[in-house]
Amino acid sequence: MNEKVRVLMGGITYIETELIEDALSENASEKKKAAKSFLIKFLISAAAVCFIFSVFFPFFAANVEAVGNFTEKLMPEYYEYIRNFAINKKEVPSQDEDKMLYYSELFAFHDKSTAYMSANFTDELSPEEAEIVLMKTEDLLYSAGEGPIGFLEHLGFEKGSYAFEIQKGFIKTDIAYSKVTERLSEYMTKEVLMGILGEYVFSENDLTCLLCAKGSGERFNVLETVQEKNGFYTSVIASENSTFKVYYGITCEKDEYILGYYYCSPYTKENEENATVHEVTEEDMKEMISVAEIFLRLCAYMHNDPFSLLEYLGYTNADILSNETVGNYIKTSIDYNDFLSKMLYSMTEKAFRDRFSIVFQKDNYGKLCVLPGGGTGVDFISVSSLYDNGDGTYTVFACWEYGEGEYGSPLRFKKADGHWLVDGD
Amino acid sequence: MEDREIIRLFFHREESAVTQLQNKFGGFCYSIAKNILESVEDTEECIWDVYLKVWNSIPPQNPDNLKVWLGKVVRNCALNLWDKKHAKKRFSEAVVPFDELQDCIPDFTTPERVLEKEELGEVISRWLKTLNNADRNLFIRRYWLCEPLCDIARANNINEKKLAKRMYILRKNLKIALEREGICL
Prior knowledge:
The complex is a heterodimer of chains A (425) and B (185). Chain A is of the alpha+beta class and 425 residues long. Helix content of chain A is 46%, strand content 25%.
């Protein structure tokens, strides 16, 4: 820790008491919730492990043997806990909870137990019922990897029983959104599903179900450009001609190691599989860094204060200041399209394609509404993907956060005279 | 036991005050110290320093909020001990939250305003008040309580990577705020 950081740490010590009180009280209530959720999680993972053990014990035994002493000493103990907890309904002593969780992670049940965590799981659920949940969830996850139509079929929506329209980037069906969530609730909550498959697999749009899929519609789109699973991740940057540049690497603790990249045009599973991998050069790194820097700079402005972003974009106080409000928003005299084009112009095209944030909304008359910034519970998170619609327009999925919820919506843009404009809106 | 009652015991110089303090806030003190110092031995050394310091400070001090006041004492003791051990090169690695805070350091090469710790605390508090509750709590949990990122992510039910990104934005944001105030650390 250098001297300056030490001074800063010293300053942080003297943050106002009221602010710390608030954080501590929130912390305490979260811990209570976490303790409750841990018990549910443990119960579920225990039941899952029981099932897996009964079916796959020979396989596990082989793996466990490789861990040496674990088989002889810890495994029986773990199994005993699970048996007691899931079958005999005995509590796990609190001092052993961490150990149990560690064991369960060691056996790579972590993802599964997370999936079960929010399943319709009650204390009355028997190990047999837990088996069914396990199998259903696993099948569901596999089907999700196969594509939206297979996924819907798995949920009981047979092909032909619903109308759908394939669009680049997503499939729009006439299935009521509530029907999908109802069927999904047999497996897990939407949040858990999103946690596993990535965010924004679904979005609600006029009571129709909108499934977002990558490029060809073969896979679900994860609207985060960085996808991570089991320590591996990919980071996608789209290039000028709709060719997607996909970096891939591995995460090791807090470090990320970029292993290489490949191109996909369009971004399809087949192209991805057949792509030639390139080594990362210094120029590539500079490109990635510039994208990240621009993004972070804009994020910092947006997060801190929407007005500072407007100033950064070249608007004056006369443009911004207004006494007129719309709900919680302040209506400015700035033309929304003008703002958007400036916003996009200030970023590189790569940055725009890679990540884009909507901080502002427009009112019915096309004027810019500045959303309140810090302190009001409104945060904007820039997570998006851009698809070339092939007709000179692009669809962007912009996502934002409000309080504890996160929302997303597709927007269409076109490029004219070197500027990006909202299309048909 | 109520905080007021514990303080009353300190005022009456009753040794049970330390036991009561330990019973009620021992875990809280330990976790802050441990998050800063990492080593169990150093944490225990720090905690005894804290109790001694509390014994010597109350009276005359009479904190309104014992827990927060105690947290500040723990942070100061832990940071001082960290300095001491670090000076003797007994620590090989910097603690992660310290490393992260490097992002908040203003870029000034010449001093514009040098502040005392308390004043700096006020500036940071003002900045914290511009944030929403969630971000404010995240910052305090990470850099005041020094909680590990993974614990905060788990408690908030968010992806650790996403949280790290959010924390990075917060730190950059603090840097902008400090620079706006012309503060040099």
